[in-house]
Amino acid sequence: MGWWKIDRATGQPIAGEHSALSRPPELVLPNAVPSVDDDEADCYLGDGPGDMGSGLPAEFEAAIGDGRSLTDQQLRDCLLGRVVPQSLADRRPQLLQLVEAFWLDIDGCYEDEWGRPARPAEKRWICEDVIERRRHK
């Protein structure tokens, strides 16, 4: 699985970053390496969390089940703040269960690779990735 260091403010990979294991010019590892590159000030995104988020919008649609849907901002509020809009109050338990399971999986992925749960900035950019993928499905 690939991991890359991101800018906390933009969520974009930091240009020119490579693993501390790199030994230029012979070996340049463009991906971050867990247990080598992790620093408390750094944030990383990876293929695993992206893959986990790819099916989440469909899971939300199935849980809502009646043609109603969430706007991008409502999805963001639900994922990051556990806020369900009043118009979907009847689906609140199902939606919050999805949110909790999703973040448990994400934190488990980070625990497995980095020995820690996902950091707030990482969660924010994982959420934005979910929203972006939903727009382009």
Explain the overall architecture:
This protein is mainly alpha-helical and 137 residues long. It is 48% helix and 6% strand. The protein has one domain. It is built from 5 helices and 2 strands; from the N terminus they run ββααααα. Strands 1-2 form a two-stranded antiparallel ribbon. Helix 1 runs antiparallel to helix 4, helix 2 packs antiparallel against helix 4 (92-114) and helix 3 (72-81) runs antiparallel to helix 5 (120-135). The longest helix is centred in the C-terminal third of the chain and has 23 residues, at 92-114.
Helix-strand blueprint:
Elements: E1 3-6, E2 43-46, H1 47-54, H2 56-64, H3 72-81, H4 92-114, H5 120-135
Antiparallel strand pairs: 1-2
Helix pairs in contact: 1-4, 1-5, 2-4, 3-5
Give the termini separation.
23 Å
What portion of residues is helical? 40-55%
Count every beta strand, where a strand is a DSSP E run of 2 or more residues: 2
Oligomer: single chain
- Going by helix content, strand content and strand pairing, the class is mainly alpha
* Low-pLDDT windows of residues: none
Please outline what is shown here.
This protein has 137 residues and is mainly alpha-helical.
List keywords for this structure.
2 strands, two-stranded antiparallel ribbon, 5 helices, 137 residues, elongated, mainly alpha
